[in-house]
Design goal:
The protein is an alpha/beta fold. The protein contains 12 helices and 8 strands. α8 packs parallel to α9. The mean pLDDT is 92.
Length: 301
């Protein structure tokens, strides 16, 4: 299977854009904000709330980071105007984290403040392990400045995550917990699928024990079950957790969770940067390529 994964990843750059688009359009709402709003309205009709993700990361010029801020402000305004049950997810490298941390902080501060005036919420995605410390610094700084409408993501594959939850306990953060998508060295990340699951369950429990709100972000049936179990054992109401999934993935499990009465948020990526995003993701994590290719066949069946 690893060979097939590598083959898919190696060929992705040569696949014509229109073909990548055919596959990507299941996972990306489209290029424009209107496309994402259409997807969010469709999800609402299926009982799901959403988080908007403007595609783009690792910007090389501050003008691109300023543009991300402008577009995300427009997203928040649109959510407000249309009364959508949705928030936003951002990547700090799209706000210039790797160019100048202080300027990136300034942009994110403006955005979170704008969200606060509209009664909305900003989730900071977690990127590769080179960004983890800076992401935690920026999150803590926003909270120290009194902005509580901001949350962050931790990755169960990172060996440090249990310790991060302990260190952050004083802030009672709103978390999203995911496995983690980036390819990391063995010193920093668990590699074995079962070890990652074990850590996911343990971190999830620690987050709830610390009183946090948790977005249980996974499509893995074993972890969805673990999420259901911990929520039932702890007797948690809907204001303490939600499940989260990516657009176009495991829609059957998603519908089942909604029918059981769980809150379910779908991550809705959109934007002109979709091709670069898909190619980068597939190259970084060939396993995803396999899901995508298999999904294409399943859809045609
Ligand atoms: C809402 C949300 C937000 C996320 N935010 C982040 C983040 O900030 N930082 C980060 O590093 N990672 C993030 N991720 C990605 C996450 O870390 C995983 O890489 C990804 O979700 C797969 O993990 P899994 O738990 O679904 O388990 P897996 O074992 O990888 O997948 C379980 C099953 O789900 C299906 N599946 C999973 N992913 C896909 C896919 N992309 N396409 C098609 N089928 C798929 C497959 O059928 C697979 O067998 C996020 C994921 C979600 C759901």
């Amino acid at each position: 299977m690893a060979l097939l994964d590598r083959l898919i990843a190696a060929s992705i750059g040569f696949i014509p854009k229109f073909m990548v688009r055919r596959v990507a359009w299941r996972y990306v709402a489209g290029e424009a904000l209107d496309d994402a709003v259409t997807a969010v309205n469709d999800l609402a009709s299926r009982g799901c709330c959403a988080t908007f993700d403007l595609l783009g990361e690792f910007v090389k010029e501050s003008a691109q980071a300023d543009a991300a801020l402008t577009e995300y402000r427009a997203v928040l305004d649109r959510i407000h105007a249309d009364g959508l049950d949705a928030n936003i997810s951002i990547k700090l490298t799209a706000f210039g984290l790797l160019l100048d941390e202080e300027e990136a902080y300034g942009r994110v501060h403006q955005l979170v403040t704008h969200a606060s005036t509209l009664g909305n919420f900003v989730r900071i995605d977690m990127e590769d392990s080179g960004c983890t410390d800076a992401t935690l610094r920026i999150y803590a700084r926003l909270r120290q400045e009194g902005l509580d409408n901001v949350g962050l993501v931790l990755q169960a594959y990172l060996r440090r995550t249990g310790a991060d939850v302990e260190a952050l306990a004083g802030l009672t953060p709103s978390y999203r917990l995911c496995k983690g998508i980036y390819v990391e060295p063995e010193e920093v990340a668990f590699k074995d699928a079962e070890e990652i699951r074990v850590n996911y369950r343990s971190v999830l429990d620690a987050m709830f024990a610390a009183g946090s709100y948790v977005g249980i972000a996974t499509h893995d049936p074993a972890l969805v079950e673990a999420g259901r179990a911990v929520v039932a054992e702890r007797g948690l109401a809907n204001d303490r957790y939600e499940f989260q999934m990516l657009l176009g993935v495991t829609e059957g499990i998603r519908a089942q969770l909604v029918s059981e009465g769980h809150r379910l948020r779908v991550y809705v990526p959109y934007g002109r940067d979709w091709h670069a995003y898909c190619v980068r993701r597939l190259k970084e994590n060939p396993r995803i390529g396999r899901y995508v290719v298999l999904g294409l066949f399943r859809r045609g069946a």
